[in-house]
Fold this protein.
Amino acid sequence: MTEQSFRFAGWFTLDIRLLAALFALCAALAVLVLAVWFKGRRWDEYVVGFVAVFTFAMVATLLLTNLVGGFPAVRIETLFPVP
C-alpha cells in the first residue's frame, strides 16, 4: 500500500436536479407528518419535529439513491492518479 500508484484524486459530483427533487419530497413529507401527528403543539416542537423528520428523510433518500439507484445524487469520483 505504500506504492504511489494507489493514490487518486477525486471530488464530489452532485446532481442538482435530483437533490432539488429530494429536498422538495423530504420537505413535503415533513410537513405531512407534522400535520398528522403534531396537532396542538407549541411552535418550537413544530420546528424540532420538522428538522428531525426532514433530516431523517433526506439521509434515507440519499442512501437509497446511492445504493439502489443507477444515477446517484451524490457521488465521489476518482479520475486520475496523483503524481
Q: What stands out?
A: The chain has a mean pLDDT of 81. Helices lie at 16-37, 43-67. The first strand starts at residue 8 and ends at 14.
